[in-house]
Design brief:
- With about 425 residues, this protein is α/β, with parallel strands linked by helices.
- About 40% of the residues lie in helices and about 10% in strands.
- The protein has 14 helices and 15 strands.
- The protein has a five-stranded mixed beta sheet with strand order 7-4-8-3-9. A two-stranded antiparallel sheet has the order 1-11. Strands 2-12 form a two-stranded antiparallel sheet.
- α8 crosses α9 and α13 packs antiparallel against α14.
């Protein structure tokens, strides 16, 4: 079971495995249509039915699907297979195994050949030009933005220097505060068990203050609406006009291409450090995710062949072959791709994952976010103080949450 097409599967995994094991044949069933017009609960119920009907042996899952199917007893435990075959897991990035075990309550129900994370990239030449100390591993958002504000903000928009850039579109204060700064620190916008909004705290206020200060400082580059801010041709970072940005490993490939193809570019030295991090836990991160976890269906009739496939694509031979390719993910097997275009990848592997924690602001209700947007605009216009705005977000956000909960309960009763 694969989320994309059969040809995509073969390109990523199948063709290489078939060359190694020509007597094992695949049938690929795509689960791509399952998410169409469905909520989360309906999606997993549909997936259950899909698995019952199609009977796939190998399941290639995302984080949430892995956790859900494991909790429903639909995945085969892999620890006995690993022990039986003396399969080497020592060469796998420990963070990947830690995440899988945490979701599996201490046991492995899958392996992931790759993972996603991001780092802080910086323009060494700009730092040297303005006599600013180079970034270091494990910087918080506050530290990163403090450094960004050391760069000059004068000059016209098309030629000036910026301290920091991120994304392909303008970012609101609420987005910066809730989906970037607060999420890195694991701040929850609400307590779902108690159904209480929890944003009127000193730490949340600090996140909004940082976002307001960054916006006001003029150090943040933001492409105008409808522009190609993320393309190599228009990216001020690739053109050497932005000191720092955050991105995954794909930027390394883009950087090399930009130095060759973007017209009028001034080549510069690129640096990488780990982060951003929670200042309370500078050696850890909440920003490691597993996009494709390979598992075996509990009721598989071909579990041995399925295990051979999973062993191979999570093994050394596959990692060695894939080390010549670059995409948006990193190999879980360490030691096979140590650098890209002359730059060490160590910073991608330095931080340990923060476990046993639900995601932060990604679960923020749209009604609460709309209130944040409105209130922060009033603060920007000097029509409200930040403390007044935070109080309003708390009280009106709680009222909106109570209303939504009440309506949901009524809908349940009517459905019965």
């Amino acid at each position: 079971m694969y989320n994309w097409s059969e040809s995509s599967f073969n390109l990523q995994y199948g063709d290489m495995f078939a060359m190694k094991y020509p007597n094992i044949e695949f049938e690929v069933v795509s689960s791509q249509d399952l998410r169409l017009n469905t909520g989360t609960e309906d999606y997993y119920n549909k997936m259950n039915k899909f698995i019952e009907e199609e009977q796939p042996d190998v399941l290639i899952l995302d984080n949430s699907s892995y956790e859900t199917l494991m909790s429903r007893g639909m995945l085969l435990e892999m620890d006995p297979l690993i022990k039986r075959d003396n399969y080497d897991t020592q060469g796998i990035y420990s963070a990947v195994l830690d995440i899988l075990k945490e979701k599996g309550t201490g046991k492995l129900y899958g392996l992931s050949p790759n993972f996603e994370t991001s780092v802080v990239y910086y323009n060494v030449d700009l730092f040297n030009k303005y006599g600013i100390e180079l970034p270091h591993d494990g910087m918080s958002w506050q530290e990163i933005m403090d450094v960004a504000r050391l760069f000059p903000t004068d000059g016209d928009e098309d030629n000036r220097v910026y301290g920091f850039s991120i994304g392909n579109s303008p970012l609101s204060i609420s987005y910066l505060a809730a989906f970037m700064f607060a999420e890195t620190q694991g701040l929850q916008p609400l307590n779902k068990n108690a159904m209480k909004v929890t944003v009127n705290t000193e730490t949340w206020t600090e996140m909004f203050k940082l976002a307001l200060d960054v916006k006001k400082s003029g150090t943040l580059y933001e492409p105008s609406v409808g522009s190609l801010g993320g393309s190599m041709e228009s990216s001020p970072f690739f053109k050497g006009r932005v000191a720092m940005t955050t991105e995954g490993p794909y930027l390394l490939q883009q950087f090399k291409e930009s130095q060759k193809t973007v017209e009028g570019i001034n080549p510069f030295q690129l640096g990488i450090v780990s982060g951003p991090v929670d200042p309370k836990e500078p050696e850890m991160t909440r920003n490691i995710s597993l996009r494709e976890i390979t598992s075996i269906a509990m009721n598989s009739g071909n579990s041995d062949a399925a295990w051979e496939f999973i062993k191979y694509i999570n093994g050394e031979e596959f990692a060695k072959a894939k080390s010549r390719l670059v995409n948006g993910t990193l190999l879980s097997r360490t030691g096979f791709i140590k650098e890209i275009n002359g730059l060490s990848l160590d910073s991608f592997y330095k931080l340990k994952p923060i476990l046993s924690e639900s995601s932060g602001s990604s679960g923020i209700p749209s009604s609460l976010f709309e209130i944040m947007e409105r209130e922060m605009k009033l603060v920007q216009e000097n029509k409200k103080s930040l403390d007044e705005a935070m109080n309003t977000i708390q009280t009106e956000g709680q009222a909106a949450l109570d209303k939504e909960h009440k309506e949901a309960e009524l809908n349940k009763k009517e459905a019965k």
